[in-house]
Amino acid sequence: MSDQITLRQPDDWHLHLRDGKLLESVVGYTSCVFRRAIIMPNLTPPITTIQGAKHYRQRILDSVPAGISFTPLMTIYLTDDLSPKVLEEGFVQNVFTAAKLYPANSTTNSAEGVSDINAINSLFETMERIDMPLLIHGEDMDPNVDVFDREAVFIDRHLQPVLKRFPRLRVVLEHITTEHAVDFVETSTYNLAATITPHHLHLNRNAMFLGGLRSDFYCLPVIKRESHRIALRRAATSGKSCFFLGTDSAPHMRGAKESSCSCAGIFNSPYALESYAEVFEEEGALDKLESFCSEFGPAFYRLPLNKGSITLIRKKQMIPQFIYLDNERKHQESIVPFHAGEYLNWSVLTQAN
Ligand code: DOR
Ligand code: ZN
What we know:
By secondary structure, the protein is α/β, with parallel strands linked by helices. It has a single domain (10-305), classed as TIM Barrel, CATH 3.20.20. It is built from eleven helices and 13 strands. Helix 2 (50-63) links the parallel strand 3 and strand 4 (71-77). The structure holds (4S)-2,6-dioxohexahydropyrimidine-4-carboxylic acid (DOR) and zinc ion. Residues 14, 16, 40, 248, 250 line the site of zinc ion.
C-alpha cells in the first residue's frame, strides 16, 4: 500500500469564490492546490458582461497569495435577454471560457437565470458554432416536481432535447447527483461530460437529518439516497474521461447557514483533494485519481495539461470545526469546512509549480 501519491497538478472545474472579504479569505485554499479553476458567475449582481468578468478576474488575481500561479477561468451567466454577440465577443477575446446556465430560482443567486430554456436557442446556436462549452445546473424548477427528482426530470425534459437540437454543443452537466445522470452521461453519444463533487461522493441524504436538521450538508442539487452515491463513486473512479473533478465549493458564512432558511452550499476547498483521495482509496482506485483530477478536465476544455505536480502523503489530519475569516474570529463570519471535526487519512505535502 503506497503512502505517497504524486499527481500532475489538478484543476477545479467548478468553483464559487464569491467576492470582497469572502473572496480574499477563500481563494488561497484553492490556489495552493489547484492550478486553474472554472469560476461560477452567480454573484450579486451576476456576471453578465465582458467588463464585469474582466474586473472580477482581476479581483480574484489580486486576492491570490503572492508567489502562487493560479488562473481563474471565467464564465458568463446566461439570462433570458443576454445577447449572443456578448457571448461570442467575450469568448473570442478569451475572457469567458464557458457559459453557465442556471434555471431561474434553482439555487443561490439564480433569480436572474433562464426562465425558459426553449427561448434561448439563439445562445445555444452561437455556442455550438463557436465551440463554447455550456455548463448546466441541471434541475427542473417546475413546482410539481419533487426536489429529489429535479435532476432526473431536467435531463429528460431539457438536456436530452437541447443535445438533440444542438448535437455538436459541448456540455458539462455540473455536480451530478443521481444514477440517472451517471447513466445518461456515460452512454451519451454527444459532447457531454459531468463534474462530481467530494460531498456527493461522501454523503447520502441521511446526513442532512442526523440528530437534527443539518444545514452544513445542505447543497443543491440536494444530496440523494445511498444508491445514487454508490453510482457516483463508480462513475468517478471508472477511469472514464466524461467524469472529472469539480468541487462546487460554495462558502456561506455561519450567519447565513444558521438560519431557518439556510443557504445551499458546502465549503470543501480547504481539503478537497484529500477528500477525493479518500474516496478513490476506499474504492481501490487510487490509480485513477490523477486522470480524474488532472487530465480529463483539460481534455474536455481543450486546454494543456498542467506541468507542475502535487504530493499527498498518508498522514491523518483533523479537520477544524470552523474557519475564521480574520483575526476577530467572529462566529457569524466563520465558515464550516466540509469534514469538520472528522479525520482524513491523506494530507497535501508539497506543491511544485
Ligand atoms: O449548493 C450550492 N451552492 N449549489 C449551487 O448550485 C450554488 C451554490 C452557491 O452558490 O452557494
Ligand atoms: Zn455551483
